[in-house]
Specification:
This protein has about 130 residues and is mainly alpha-helical. Among the domains are: about 5-35; about 45-105. Helix content is about 75%, strand content about 0%. The chain contains five helices and no strands. The chain has helices at about 1-35, 40, 45-70, 80-105, 110-120. α3 runs antiparallel to α4 (about 80-105). InterPro entries: Exosome-assoc_fac/DNA_repair (IPR011082), Sas10/Utp3/C1D (IPR007146).
């Protein structure tokens, strides 16, 4: 009798986890639909479009990674691992470029001109007196 109850508890736990997976899949699908709205994408800056594209690629690859795991395939021995590594490098490069553009000091041209103009030595005008011969 205890064995039957134990099997039943495993079945209930499995069904509960499958329901959670199904609900998570529906939420993910809703977010993907929202993210694929062309009106939103067109309003993004170039930097944000790069981030968006990298995020979508990485998300899809991660979903495929999970699919392989559910099929019993080791994803570390699959081509998807190389693709994920390539995307990680692209994400790091995009972050470096973004940091370089945002953290790089900017020169205020007008302030620099005033600084240079005020720091230069200007000779005093000497009025020459005409000499009588």
């Amino acid at each position: 009798m205890d064995a039957d109850f134990e099997d039943l508890s495993h079945d209930v736990e499995l069904i509960s986890r499958l329901k959670q997976l199904y609900q998570a899949t529906l939420r993910f699908e809703d977010r993907i639909d929202l993210a694929n709205d062309p009106a939103i994408y067109d309003k993004l800056s170039n930097s944000d479009k790069i981030k968006y594209n990298l995020l979508m690629s990485y998300s899809l690859n991660s979903m495929f990674w999970m699919y392989l795991r559910t099929e019993g395939i080791d994803p570390t021995k699959h081509q998807i691992k190389n693709e994920n590594d390539r995307l990680k490098k692209s994400m790091e490069r995009a972050k470096q470029i973004n940091d370089k553009n945002t953290l790089m000091p900017r020169v205020d041209k007008n302030a620099a001109q005033r600084f240079i103009r005020n720091s230069l030595w200007e000779p005093k005008v000497v009025v020459e007196k005409s000499m009588e011969l």
